[in-house]
Amino acid sequence: MKLKLTLLLLLTMELAIPTRLSAQTTPVDNHAPGFELFGGYSYIFKPYDRTNLTPFSGGTSGWDASLRVPVPIFGSWLGVKGDVSGFYRSDQPNFNPHSYFFLLGPQVSLHLGKSTVFADGLVGSSHLNNSALPNLRSASTLAVAVDGGVDIGLTRAWAWRVMAGYYNTNYQSTNHNVSEITNSNVRISVGPVFRF
Fold first, then answer.
1. Is 35 helix (H, G, I), strand (E, B) or coil?
2. Which one of 20, 95, 134, 183 has the minimum C-beta count within 10 Å?
3. Which residues lie closer than 8 Å to 127 by C-beta, 6 or more apart?
4. What is the pLDDT of residue 39?
């Protein structure tokens, strides 16, 4: 009986000790952020074409805000991102468009120390104020965006984001001679990121 108990004890120790040791050597990723909250300045290049009705063809300035929520089953490299932005132009008395984007989609991140390189693909809605353009068929339309950028780590909790992306909307006018809206745009954004 003593021999059986001794063998059972040795077998149990043989199985338990390597498991304990391997659990202690598993690396813990303490540097990868979970949630990311961004807010900053944004600029869209050439959202309107020059026509007789619109005498300018420049870009518009605005703001961008986003929240990235991690997907725990995939680790820190995959998250779901919600992005809201607004763009304004008011240098012409009869033409002051205001456009807003509401987007959602996956973001893939590669964490390099305190810094992060990321890319996302977003889909959602874009809204343009009705008084911006004559003969606008719909003030809201489908919007698609593909972004990429880098969060330059300042501390564990704070980073500075530099981001560029491609946006596509589908605004249409009831008048085929009016083509003020450029539906494919490039956007850049910069600003602080709070990571928690």
1. coil
2. 20
3. 99, 100, 101, 102, 139, 140
4. 98
**Radius of gyration for the chain, computed over Cα atoms and rounded to the nearest angstrom:** 26
Q: What backbone torsions phi and psi does residue 128 show, to the nearest 5 degrees? A: -120, 135
- What whole-number distance in Å separates Cα of residue 168 and Cα of residue 186? 9
Cβ contacts of residue 48 below 8 Å, gap of 6+? 54, 56, 57, 97, 180, 181, 182
Calculate mean pLDDT across residues 112-126. 96
Q: Where are the domains of the chain?
A: 36-195
pTM recorded for the entire structure: 0.75
> Which of 94-108, 144-158, 165-179 has the largest mean confidence?
144-158
CA atoms within 13 A on the CB side of 15: 5
Q: Classify 36-195 by CATH class.
A: mainly beta
Q: How far apart are CA 2 and CA 125, in angstroms?
A: 75
The pLDDT of 26-35, averaged and rounded, is 60
- Taking residues 131-135, report their average pLDDT: 58
Distance CA 108, CA 118 (A): 6
**Structure tokens of 82?**
């919600």
* Residues 6+ away with beta carbon under 8 Å from 153: 113, 114, 115, 116, 159
Sign of the dihedral through C-alpha 177, 181, 184, 186: positive
The DSSP output letter for 39 is E
